[in-house]
Amino acid sequence: MKKISILAALLLFVVSSFAQRELGIRPTETGGPLMFEQAAYDVQAYDITLKVDPKTKTISGITVMTAKIVIPTNVIVLDLDTPYTIGRVYSEAGGKQAALKYERKEGKIWIYFPATKQPGEMFETIISYSGIPREAPRPPWIGGFMWKKTGDGSDWISVALQNDGADLVFPVKDHPSDKASTATMRVTVPDPLVAVGPGKLESTAKNHDGTSTYIWRMTNPIPNYSILFNAAPYRVIKDSVKSITGEMIPMEFYILPESFEKGPKLINETKKYNAFFEKYLGPFPFRSQKLGIVETPHLGMEHSTHIAYGNKFQYNEDGFDWLMLHEFGHEWWSNLVTASDWRDFWIHEGFQSFMDTLYLEEIKGKDAYFEAMRGRAARTRNMQPVAPREPKISYQVYMAEPDYLKSDGDIYGKGAVVLHTLRYLIGDEAFFRSLRRMCYPTKEMEAVTDGRQARLVNTDDFLNIAEQESKMDLDWFFELYLRQPKLPKLVTAITIDSASSGSHDQVMSLTWETPNNLPFPMPVDVEVNGKTRRVELKNGQATVSFTGTVPVVDPKGWVLKVQ
User: Fold this and answer.
1) pLDDT tens, 246-263?
2) In what order do the strands lie in the sheet with 194-196?
3) Which of 60, 278, 531, 551 is the one with CA 20 to 30 A from 314?
4) pTM of the model as a whole
5) Domain assignment of residue 243, yes or no
């Protein structure tokens, strides 16, 4: 099979960006600076009822949001995409409904309470709405709904939201810093479609109008963009895999009938991927729910417990499905640990891209790993920081600001190579302990399945963990590689050793040149006459004496630098 890579996916993203500019399409925003009216409350649960009509490409819904006040306020804000019409906004208590005053301002709903609510107070909003949802122009990168057909002409409905926000489906606090503790989706679709959502299938009901309602409930914290559904005349393949905890993880693959015979192989491959991730990162986080896969008309997305899979069962020259490996790994890097702001999105994509490359080492050896990392290093764009300090919307970290035309895949590839370089700096033992602790801070957390293991994180969390595990100061490393875009340059020069009596003794000087003269005491391997040793550059400088062949600096390509 032809090898397909993350680079190819990013290239497609660039092409789609040109197309959207030509068509006048601009992506919607998700995240960014958190407004007070949203910071004031903490979402506990979403309960979403949807009726989906593929003939008219419309949905109608009711969303119940349960939340807790954390800052006194008499007004809150929810996001809802502009194509929808709001029916009612109200609350319910003691069997009685009470209308809530609200205003619609562009893509936001401002809801006013009769009196200021106090910290710790629980409240509920119920919003009914309907309309023709935004269609995805270039899924999954530019998101929305997809109204497609299967090979036999059946309806095939899919949704992708990561870069555009869950407000394309339901009223939501559209910010990565707030994951609902539970999410329920009650999706009604025409027969014979089967609707698939997050968590466990609680019930299925046949209705009198030729539709069926599927109720899915996720009882672990879940990112907003994973609260969605897919629908098709799916068949389901059920299996299980044993976790390193000893528990059996239920596996469910919702697959098109035309693809059914190809399903078992992907399930068996996914079992291998699970063993790999559990080995390095700890147990599969959602053992109480399911390891779910859903066949989709778009390439794929890391929807928690219902991974979107659209790679058409292609296995690369190394024998594995890169898309399934990548998206499944996001159950750890995205769904277990979630960046609290898009500025730290590299924790999802860079960490998982590192794991993608580590898998090559696992199955093919260290040389394959080094070759892949050298390729990633050569493709870094270095146009903007991988982990800027200021809040960002999702597209700002995917693309080079302010022009959405310029793809910047550095949160993927550069993020992976930064971790590769850190691995060299602090050593395998400290590095892999750091990865596992980033997923599970304590051994006790690895046994938890009720959601307490899921966390919101940022780049400094990993910095602190890596410093603790390595017993090294790493501020300088994170500052240069993540907080600003430019790479260091290693300058070498060769001179005759005047202090030596040998006429052929020479000295190679090594000097780091860094942007803004940032401190960078990065060691580097130097190969002298076939022997490799690690040379410390504590003040950014060092010398190496040699005779004969000129030393080879960083022969394996451990350190990310100007080529």
Assistant:
1) 999 999 999 999 999 999
2) 144-149, 155-160, 230-232, 194-196
3) 278
4) 0.93
5) no
